[in-house]
Amino acid sequence: MGYIFLFLIGFGLAVTGGVTLIAYMNFLPAGISWLEYLLYVSGRIECYFLPVGLILMTLSTYSFPNRS
């Protein structure tokens, strides 16, 4: 049960971080460069939710006990 809960928390964080990154891509047509975009995104805490969520999902998927 704990693995499913951890997976769902990770999924929610990954979705939140991914949507935030895509939303901030709307700054690109406004005239900022990719470097300025990456610098801006690296300073926003909600953009770190994507890698944290992916790590939580990976840990919950691959940490099942061996049944041997």
Description:
By secondary structure, the chain is mostly helical. The protein is built from three helices and no strands. The two termini are 20 Å apart. The mean pLDDT is 90. Helix 1 runs antiparallel to helix 3 (49-62). The chain has helices at 2-24, 34-42, 49-62.
Low-confidence stretches: none
Largest sheet entry: none
Radius of gyration: 16 Å
Shape designation: elongated
Helix content: 55-70%
Count of separate DSSP helical elements: 3
Order of helices and strands: HHH
Proportion of β residues?
under 5%
Provide keyphrases for this structure:
mainly alpha, 68 residues
Short overview:
This protein has 68 residues and is mainly α. The chain is 68% helix and 0% strand. Helix 1 (2-24) runs antiparallel to helix 3 (49-62).
Topology overview:
Layout: H1 2-24, H2 34-42, H3 49-62
Helix pairs in contact: 1-3
